[in-house]
């Protein structure tokens, strides 16, 4: 390479650096202009510096042009632009960002352990850096989460449940028990999570299902009572929760608790037979109404006959009160062959969260957790997660609606 070519390369590199610096100064100047007049002096200084650098850039470009004109047959060296990054002007690749998310939400490593892992590999990351990356990626994924939630809430049959997580309370300077909610499309299996400052109260339930129209399957948590008989809503119960109540009563009264479990076992036996036979929904509905509903009626008669044998505070008494109160909801699964006998589908979706209960989470981490544990993100494949992050980012840039719906949610 001739000395002239080397000079052109040096000038082009310096030119690119100056252009980038001018762009940064212009951005900073815009910010200063938006702030108070007390900062106007700084803005003027930056304006002067930008003008001077523009003159330098023009001079350098003229020099490069003159060198190239002397030998026009020579090819100009062009520096390719950097590939677009998930974090603009950031140095973190999609592979690194995917690895951080996998460590936190698949392997449940707190950030200080992630930082230590990279330190042992010779990469030094600060708390603030990894936190900024984390927040930036989650903000990019937010439209996917919103679209997933929109799709699930358009289903005519959902399951809802909530689970506990230890969350750091910055005011109390200690960990407190928070709740994260899960909503599952019981037809296709998609799941999204909702976190409302750790709340489990009726207002949070109202935000989730207040405007929903369709069938809602839940456990016996009292906040759902408000929607029993509500227009455009059909509430159905969970026989798995009912069964647990009688299992807990076995130590207190094995005879009666076992009798109750026999009735419930018959219901599950019918479900198992139909599942193994691969029956369609219409056949399932018909058999439930002909066989399962009769067993439920027999079970109700049995509860009436033994209810006077137990005090309301005994385990058996609590199991009977719980079941009898919810019996209308527990019976409604026979109305549609698509309905599940229990709420285990959404409970299984929440189960991965239990691994992370051994350490506390910041409120921000729990807010972002909902983005990671839906059906489309719950995967152990780093390659798959990388592809999803990249696909979501570039599709979001191009989509006219601002939304992107990936395959599987």
Structural description of this entry:
The chain is of the alpha/beta class. Helices cover 56% and strands 9% of the residues. The protein contains 13 helices and 5 strands. Strands 3-2-1-4-5 form a 5-stranded mixed beta sheet. The longest helix has 32 residues. The chain starts with a helix and ends in an 11-residue tail after the last helix.
List the helices and strands and how they pair.
Layout: H1 3-34, H2 40-70, H3 94-105, H4 111-120, H5 127-153, E1 157-169, E2 174-185, E3 191-195, H6 202-209, E4 214-217, E5 233-236, H7 239-248, H8 254-277, H9 281-306, H10 315-331, H11 344-350, H12 363-372, H13 382-398
Parallel strand pairs: 1-4, 4-5
Antiparallel strand pairs: 1-2, 2-3
Short key terms for the protein model shown above:
409 residues; disordered C terminus; five-stranded mixed sheet; elongated
Mean pLDDT: 79
Largest sheet: 5 strands, mixed
Specify Rg, calculated over alpha carbons.
31 Å
Give the helix tally. 13
Succession of helices and strands:
HHHHHEEEHEEHHHHHHH
Number of strands: 5
Question: What is the topology, as strand order, of the major beta sheet?
Answer: 3-2-1-4-5
Structural class: alpha/beta
Relative strand content: 5-15%
Shape: elongated
């Amino acid at each position: 390479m001739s000395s002239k070519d080397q000079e052109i390369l040096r000038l082009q590199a310096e030119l690119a650096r100056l252009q980038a610096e001018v762009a940064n100064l212009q951005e900073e100047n815009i910010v200063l202009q938006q702030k108070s007049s007390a900062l106007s002096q700084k803005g003027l200084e930056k304006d002067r510096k930008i003008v001077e650098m523009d003159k330098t850039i023009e001079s350098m470009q003229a020099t490069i042009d003159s060198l190239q004109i002397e030998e026009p047959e020579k090819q100009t060296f062009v520096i390719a632009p950097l590939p677009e990054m998930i974090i603009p002007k950031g140095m973190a690749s999609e592979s690194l960002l995917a690895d951080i998310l996998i460590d936190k939400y698949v392997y449940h490593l707190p950030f200080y352990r992630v930082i230590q892992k990279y330190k042992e590999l010779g990469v030094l990351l600060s708390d603030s850096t990894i936190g900024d990356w984390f927040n930036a990626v989650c903000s990019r994924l937010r439209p996917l989460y919103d679209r997933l939630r929109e799709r699930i809430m358009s289903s005519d049959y959902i399951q809802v449940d909530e689970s506990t997580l230890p969350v750091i309370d910055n005011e109390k300077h200690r960990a407190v028990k928070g709740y994260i909610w899960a909503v599952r499309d019981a037809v296709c299996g998609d799941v999204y999570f909702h976190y409302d400052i750790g709340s489990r109260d009726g207002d949070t339930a109202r935000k989730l299902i207040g405007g929903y129209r369709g069938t809602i399957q839940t456990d016996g948590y009292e906040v759902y009572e408000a929607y029993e008989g509500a227009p455009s809503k059909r509430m159905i119960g969970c026989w798995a929760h009912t069964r647990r109540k009688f299992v807990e009563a076995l130590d207190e009264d094995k005879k009666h608790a076992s009798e109750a479990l026999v009735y419930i076992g018959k219901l599950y036996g019918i479900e198992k037979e139909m599942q193994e036979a691969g029956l369609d929904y219409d056949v399932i509905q018909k058999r439930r109404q002909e066989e399962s509903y009769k067993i439920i009626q027999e079970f109700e008669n049995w509860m009436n006959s033994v209810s006077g044998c137990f005090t309301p505070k005994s385990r058996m008494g609590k199991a009977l009160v719980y079941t009898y109160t919810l019996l209308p909801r527990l019976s409604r699964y026979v109305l549609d062959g698509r309905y599940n006998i229990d709420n285990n589908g959404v409970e299984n979706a929440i189960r991965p969260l239990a691994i992370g209960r051994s350490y506390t989470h910041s409120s921000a981490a729990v807010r972002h957790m909902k983005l990671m544990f839906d059906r489309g993100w719950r995967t152990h494949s780093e390659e798959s997660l990388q592809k999803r992050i990249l696909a979501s980012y570039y599709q979001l840039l191009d989509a006219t609606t601002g939304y992107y719906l990936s395959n599987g949610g």
